Each structure stands twice: as C-alpha cells, then as structure tokens.
Amino acid sequence: MKRITLAHGGGGRVTRNLLKDIFYPLLDNEYLRGETDAAVLPASDRPLAFTTDAHVVNPLFFPGGDIGRLAVYGTANDLAVMGAEPQYLTLGCIIEEGMPVDDLKRVVASIADAARDANVKVVAGDTKVVGTGAADGLFLCSAGVGTLLPHAPSGAQTIQPSDAVIVSGPIGDHGATIFAARQSGMHIDVISDCAPIFPLVQAAMKASSQIRVMRDPTRGGLGAALNEFIENGSVSIELNAGAIPVRPAVQSLCDLMGFEPMHLACEGRLVIIVAAEDAEAVLQALRSVKGGESAAIIGRVDTAHPGMVYQRTPVGGKRIVDMPSGELLPRIC
What we know:
By secondary structure, the chain is an alpha+beta fold. The protein has two domains: about 5-150, CATH 3.30.1330.10; about 155-320, PurM-like C-terminal domain (Phosphoribosyl-aminoimidazole Synthetase, Chain A, domain 2), CATH 3.90.650. It contains eight helices and 13 strands. It has a seven-stranded mixed β-sheet with strand order 8-10-7-11-9-12-13. Strand 2 and strand 3 form a beta hairpin. The two termini are about 30 Å apart.
C-alpha cells in the first residue's frame, strides 16, 4: 500500500505490518524489541523529571526540520530546562487516512535520527488512524522522562535584582521559517533552529550553581518566556535591545510583516537567568558548545517596573515587551 488506510489503525494484520515495516526497525532499541504494552525502565537514584507534549506543525516538513524532529527535540528540551538529562520518550501517532506511506517513513526515520542526536530512546508508543480530513496528515503526542542533575535551577521565584539574562543564540528562526514555508513563492535565508539544547544546559550548569531558571522559548518566543518568569514577582527585566541576537533575514521579515522578533518561536534556543557574578562564566560556557556560539547577555533583572519586561532602546528610550496577544502564527510546533 502506498497510502495509509483505516485498516492500518484497526489492530489487525495491516497494523502489525505497519509496526514491523516502519516503527520497530527504525526506532529499534532493547525496550521496543519485546513488543510489550509498556516499557519496564531501570530505577534511578536521582529525582525524575516528566513532561508531555503534542505536535501539530504545518507543514510537516520545513527547512531545518520536520514534525518528527520537532517532537523529539521539543520533548527533550522541556526536560533539559528543568536541569534534567533526557533519557526516555514515548510517542503517539495520530495518522490521517490517505497519508503517503513514504512520508510516514520519512518522519519516523527523522524521529530515529533526532533520538540518537539527543541521546534518548523511544521506549513505547501507539498508532491511531483517523478518517480523511480529521488530522491534516499527522499529529504526534509525546512524553519524556529525565533524571535531575545536581544544582538544578532553583525556580523563577528565586530571581533576584541584578541577575543576568542570557540567550544562547539568534531568536525567531523557527517562527520565521514556518511562516515563510506557508507562503507560496517566499524564500528567506534562514532555517529552523530545531535542535537539542541539553549540551547547552549541561555546560551552563557546570559553570554555575546559581542558575535561577531556564526555558526554551517556543510558542510566544523570548518575550513570553521572560514575562512568565516575573509575572507574579516584585522584579522587572530590562533588556538591551542592541544586544538581542536576531538574524538579518528574520528582522527583515518582521519589518515587512509587522512581527515582533521577541514573539517569534524558537526550537533550539535557551534563555537563562543567573546570578550576576556567574554571568560571564555561563556565557563563555555556552559559547564553547555547538549552537551557543552567538550566546549573549541581553539584560538584567531590576525593580524599576515590577512584573514588566522592557527594552532600553539604542536612543535611550524604554519600550514594553508584553506577552503576545492572540495567536501570531498558529501551529508552529
């Protein structure tokens, strides 16, 4: 069969063949080989972090990634920013009737490549098939487990005045890529930053035991992440507009469409708030790791405007960076 049919989700021979022809060989590991209803995992002597995620990106394939790579990295990155080493993932596939089998193979192969890249194993999963028009190709649901490292972030409630704000690289690449991919005839010189961030997290945590909080700024971008950090606190964040790394192609797109780069999604960036005295050490640690070469200190925590994120502009003025209002780019992850 060249396309997925409802029989592929029926639980019989056709379903079995789908698993044996695509999922089991591409995702092969010791936990899947038993073909059991659940994976039995080894016990850990460290606390566990657990997360769940869902992925509905449109289009399924885009410059720099695809829905499969996004599912693995997105789930693993949510664990990483908690100060956990990602280890195990589960995967639920909601497949639309009529999806080309070759496209499904391509996605599962990408999941396998991304899992190796992120040093995680897909240990359990499920497949369902829905009728034509009910799922827009493919939706993925994932969950992840990781083990906490020593000196995990202490939490947003511990943010202090004078703490430094650091971002690991240029912002908005993923959001700009998805927007351009949806526009017929539009090309921009940027690809998604879809990537695992645990190496960045690990380097930062080795450089400082005073990291307050970390986040991968996905939906809502850097602006949403920073606002979430301080929304219930007595501090504010002042950003240096000129220090925030944005690629020229992303800035040009934002200028053309009226977008705010601070609100465009990233899928392979890390934002950190850390004690001021450790900021330079964390910055150099990030720059020594692939993906962190353009890391920058972009601001400081203060008490000037509690609960507010604002930018200091190049001409000396101030501009509020609010939470995004509404949905800027739906289905970007």
